[in-house]
User: What shape does this take?
Amino acid sequence: MTSTKPSSGAQTKPAESAPAAALHVGTSDPRALILNNLRQSGIFVALVVIVALFAFLTDGLSLSPGNITNIVLQYSYILVLAIGMVIVIIGGHIDLSVGSVVALTGAVSAVVVIRQGQPWWVGVLAAVAVGLAVGAWHGFWVAYVGIPAFIVTLAGMLLFRGLTLRVLDNISLSPFPAEYNKIAAGFLNGLIGGDGYDAFTLLIGAIAVAGYVVSCFRTRVARIRYQQPVESFALFVARMALVGAVVMWFAWQLAHARGLPIVLIILAALVLVYGLLTRRTVFGRQVYAIGGNLSAAMLSGVKVKTVNFWIFVNMGFLSAIAGIIFSSRSNGAQPAAGNMFELDAIAAAFIGGAAVTGGVGTVVGAMVGGLIMAVMSNGMQLMGVDQSLQSVVKGLVLLVAVAFDVYNKRRLGASR
Amino acid sequence: MGDNILEMRRITKTFPGVAALQDVSLAVARGEIHAICGENGAGKSTLMKVLSGVYPAGSYEGEILLDGKPVDFRGIRDSEGHGIVIIHQELALVPYLSIAENIFLGNERRGRSGLIDWNRTNADAAELLASVGLHENPVTPVVQLGVGKQQLVEIAKALSKRVKLLILDEPTAALNDLDSAHLLNLMRRLREQGITCIMISHKLNEITSIADSTTVLRDGRTVERLDMRAGEVTQDRIIRGMVGRDLDSFYPDRVSTPGEEVLRIEDWTVRHPTQDRLVVDGASLDVRAGEVVGIAGLMGAGRTELAMSVFGRSYGRDITGRLYMHGREVKARSVAEAIGNGIAYATEDRKRFGLNLIDNIRSNVSSAGLRKLARFGWVHDNEETRVAEASRRDMNIKAPSVMSVVGKLSGGNQQKVVLSKWLFTDPDVLILDEPTRGIDVGAKFEIYTIINRLVADGKAVIIISSELPELLGMCDRIYTLSAGRITGVVPVGEATQEKLMELMAKDKEPAR
Assistant: This one.
């Protein structure tokens, strides 16, 4: 196909540059768009419904500035874990040990900082080193010895919980110095003033929106240059406006509470980096290939062992980040820290559309899945729902989400 | 014809788009060993599945008479109730259960209380084992037995069901000479006890030595029924029946201009990954630029194993031998190294080993050559789309876009995705394992045209195929493989199906 085809309609004029064309070409067949993204868009719709439901049930309390800040602080470490977990799950594995690793890394950090009086950053480095070592341990057994990850990480769950108790001598350590505590409990606030709100938070929100729009537009231009289908310009603008409005509203709410939480910056950076890592790097692609069809990946020259090893090293790294955030937020290390975190992270990945058999899933999906869990737990807490019932509801949501996934797959299979 | 235990009359079985069996008739006399032979895909296994009720009554046309009475089998249990037992090529034993438990699986020896009577189970099993000449303790787990002994356990299991008609699908394909001889002797003993056997086999020497009569199938039709008792029917006679047809003329023409040697292997030997036997035994072959070389062999001859072991040692263990690319010895110890050395291998089972069915065309096309699209580990995804689009156009892959999921494509289009994937790695030699299996005629022609185009561009191609006409229509030279050994290499001008079949069925050559 040549790029200089004489076009009768307003499709592509030959002399036009791609950026100019980006302003008007494209189709917006909503049916095709929805069908193509059913798995993804379904989860966004679910999140919106759940947010609206709890806003209604709590008389808007769940959307108040203070509560939104709380959700971010309370669930950020689960979301960090969910990033690593979704990659593990895409690769066709599972990691049951992350709760114990969160506890161990937090404990090591606490021992270094509190008991030995080292500066806060030494504790952070120590925690990361321990996380990487744990990941390498798991990766070794899974990738090079060939033991199923379920077993390896089940053993790791016991092993690293035991080591946590050892490191802490069975007692809690607290408090951390103020600098360490700021990582997860701190805010960037009042840097450039504002009256009754924090202008800095709004500025960061605006920069984020601008960055998002620019990158989306550049993608659009590139796709047109490569003669790929794009959505219509009106739809593009609408999408940008919607995302922009949600982000700015979110920033507005934060600005009216305590400002921009530092963990949110960490989380946003991780989502950005890992979103690109999974979609745009050779490593990320190979993870999908391994999870989708192990034999085919092997026969395509993918170094399956190496990739599997690094999947777990990465999980260890993110567990350490989560461990640092959690210990910072709880301002100390407890022997029982991180209990059941692995299940929340796994649930987030699956609710977010990851396939039980591997090969399918996205970081963004896992984030939305994690947010669904977070909004639900938080909303039920606000309503004073009994702990037992909360657990029942969460369990049912996970089950329904995966059942939807299985149903969806069967539907796709039947239409073959 | 006297006393026939079984008659199948005018059986027709169609699958969507394909007639697997057309008007096939089979008559088996009581107490005989009846062989069924034909090329791969001739319809032998389908016929046996009809007989054993795997394809239930109503899903085929025609009638089955057992002891002169019409029968309709609704499933395997139904046919087993009538004394028909089939032993498949892939043995259906549970590895970690004992011999006795396997024999009586689904047919357990129970005491009055309803619980399993282990004494009777093991005693009865011991008796059955003695009757098949297997001297093993019935409580031994099946996993500890070799394939030959497992085969005997299967037969003991069949005997426990009071079998009247025993069907053996390629019983000796996985056995060594000694076990094969033992099995054939057992079949003779069963015949003396009045059990009728139907045996599907590619090994013509076994058929001529043991069968009382032979039915030859070809392209889903009965060709002839040969009486073997007089001993006048030779292997050549059977081969003539199996292949007797003209070479189809739908192979595109190609001018052959072989150039420099691209790939050569010498004395290539591969051991089975778990069993103690050689799967490839001292094979040597070479292929030149602009040349298509075929590898012909019967099922179990080691064709795929040879190809995969060359392709980065992705099959087998204790691989020895030398591999040369462009005259220089190379060590391709991993698939990545093999690809780096310019070797590509498109597997015979594209769904299990070739494609990520849940991902799109683009990811599949780029999967083997992804590094070429990446800088510092970052994939240039628009460039990737362009490459995939180019493949979709050049290969005529029928799909709405390169983001279509591969699992939804037809077999022919999936195969084109596989070829695109390997062409993107820019290989010097392509090994195509059953490149047209499960593909309709039109797509086959397209694949052949693509192969010819590649060869014209100076690539070397090795085709492994069970369809001899395909090899004769596409190749310049054809190697024959039998039991892991190269038994011959025939220039296509001198090759006939009969000649190839003879070489493919050739047993290990006696020591010279």
In short: The domain at 255-342+427-512 of chain B is CATH 3.40.50.300 (Rossmann fold). The first strand of chain B starts at residue 4 and ends at 15. Chain B is about 30% helix and 25% strand. The two ends of chain B are 46 Å apart (CA to CA).
